[in-house]
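Usage

Read records sequentially. Each one opens with the input sequence:
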Amino acid sequence: MADIAGGLVIVALSVYFYIRTLSFPVITGYEKMGGEFWPRFTLVGIIFMAIIVMIDGFLKARRGMPSKGRSPEYGNTMGVAICGFIVFFFILLIPYIGFLLAAFVGMMALMSAFGERKKLVVLCYSLVMVGMIYLLFGKFLLVPLPRGVSMFGALSYYLY
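and closes with the structure output:
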């Protein structure tokens, strides 16, 4: 039942924010893909995923299966704090070592914090994810990614 209630709240909030994007001003020269495109795209994806969670919760309720609610051992405060510190240091490192290297190191640290112990899996997954982010945002969408300073800035010119 918690999945259905949570999904309804997320759908309602997403619809509200989608309606808010209808009032975004049109910027001359950007009529085809204005400032409302990515928020709407993201909100539709969120709605779609929330509906999937609600359907799953409904099917589990019909079969009498317990949903993944809070258990007595719920809450890993130390894990959340560790992930928060990793993200904090990732954000601090971006201007100095550049986005790609900071994202690679941050991804490896987060995977290790989540319990992955196979070093090859951590390395390969981090490389693939950072590579996909680079291709999508750096090459396809032409978003300028922070390059870093000193030797990291010079190195980044060879990469992108």
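Summary fields computed downstream for this record:
- The chain has a mean pLDDT of 84.
- The helical segments are 2-21, 37-63, 77-97, 99-113, 119-140, 150-159.
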